[in-house]
# Entry
Amino acid sequence: MKKMIAQREIDVNEEGYLLDFSQWNREVGQELAAEKNITLTDRHWEVIDYLQDKHHKEEALSIRGIKKSGVINVKEFYSLFPGGPLKVSTLIAGIPKPKSCI
# Structure
């Protein structure tokens, strides 16, 4: 399925997750965040960079892993990405929804 994001046609699944990470850039991330009523700050980008790095290393993502990462505490993670922080943050980061998310 195709979706117009940041003036580009992007391949996404039925939940809106990108199917091809090479189509992601910061503009795409900002527009995906705006759809979730989130304005990205430097703190958001730190978390997004961390998530993308873990994904590229093929390491599983979970709330517990984020908590142990030292990058962000869980309370702040929830406040930065309301409505299911791992689901929302990975969608914005252009990476697949983690298996730990329903």
